[in-house]
Amino acid sequence: MQMSDETVIVTPCEDGPLLIRGPFELMTQEGERIPPGRATVALCRCGHSAAKPFCDGSHKTAGFRAPTGQESEPADGVG
C-alpha cells in the first residue's frame, strides 16, 4: 500500500497499542490539541499506561490481549 501525504494509517498491534502514522492531530474531548511529539505515535489500548493517551509498554506487564485484526463485524457497521 502506497501512502500519500494525506493518508493516515492506523495499525492495531497484536496485544499492544494502536500505531498512528501520517498527518494527524490528537485532541482532548474539550478540543485542545495534544502534541504528539513525533510523526508516528503509539496510542494505549490497554488502559494501563501512565502516559495516556500514549503507550508506555504497560500492556506487557498487564497481560493485555487483543488481536491485530478485526475480531467480528460491528453490529452497526461502525467501529
Shape: globular
Helix coverage percent: under 10%
Uncertain spans: none
CATH architecture field of the domain at 9-62: 3-Layer(aba) Sandwich
The helix count comes to 1
Mean pLDDT: 88
Main β-sheet, spatial strand arrangement? 1-2-5
Strand pairing plus helix content: what structural class?
A: mainly beta
CATH topology of the domain at 9-62: Ribosomal Protein L9, domain 1
Radius of gyration (CA) equals: 14 Å
Spatial gap, N to C terminus: 22 Å
How many extended strands?
5
Strand content: 15-25%
Write the element-wise H/E pattern from the N-terminal end onward. Answer: EEEEEH
Any idea of the CATH class of the domain at 9-62?
Alpha Beta
Largest sheet: 3 strands, antiparallel
